[in-house]
Amino acid sequence: MRTTVPSSGALHFSTRGEYGVRLMVELARHHGGGPVSLSEMAEHEDLPRPYLEQLVVSLREAGLVTSTRGAHGGYELSRDPSLIGMAEVVTALEGPIAPMICASGDAHPGELCSRGGYCTVDLLWRRVRDAVVQALESTTLAELTLAGPGHPSHPTPSGRDGQPDHHDAVLVTVRPLSDRPVKESIVQP
């Protein structure tokens, strides 16, 4: 019998995770500029506004965003994007990161899987989980804010020849697991 984490495919992030990450990246691009409306974020990222309304509830409950009411209200990050790891964002949106129930971090996986007491394959699933978590933990929201070429709402700055201008370095916080935080100068692509 195959046992998986309920409502999740192995190594598959849902639309909720995808749209939520895009929403957080959009908020990071506007960080420090005041609240951003859901309508503006929906337009910039071509996302359905009603769906974003659902996502911000989870993100607010996780302490990742704050809201401001009123005519000039909206949402903004609760802290600097360089201090928000993507594991925190994805977990707030998707729940625990686990490709199989035995790798969920549950204290009693044997109660959830009939093979829990003797299965040796769980080693593989824990390693897969750990690799995914490490990749997410070592990536900050700030790293994802540089728009790609052709983004309709956030064009990539370019030089006279239409290519990216490499004269101005951009500081991006990189958070390796060994020693956090570290700032490295990265040339914008």
Question: Can you walk me through this structure?
Answer:
The structure is a single chain. α1 (15-29) crosses α4 (86-94) and α4 packs across α5. The chain has a domain at 15-141: Orthogonal Bundle (Arc Repressor Mutant, subunit A), CATH 1.10.10. The protein has helices at 15-29, 38-45, 49-61, 86-94, 122-137; strands at 65-68, 74-77, 169-174, 182-187. It is built from 5 helices and 4 strands, in the order αααββααββ.
Strand order of the largest sheet: 1-2
Point out poorly predicted stretches: 1-5, 158-189
What's the CATH architecture of the domain at 15-141? Orthogonal Bundle
Report the β-strand fraction as a percent range: 5-15%
Describe this protein with a few key phrases:
189 residues; alpha+beta; Arc Repressor Mutant, subunit A; two-stranded antiparallel ribbon; 5 helices; 32% helix; elongated
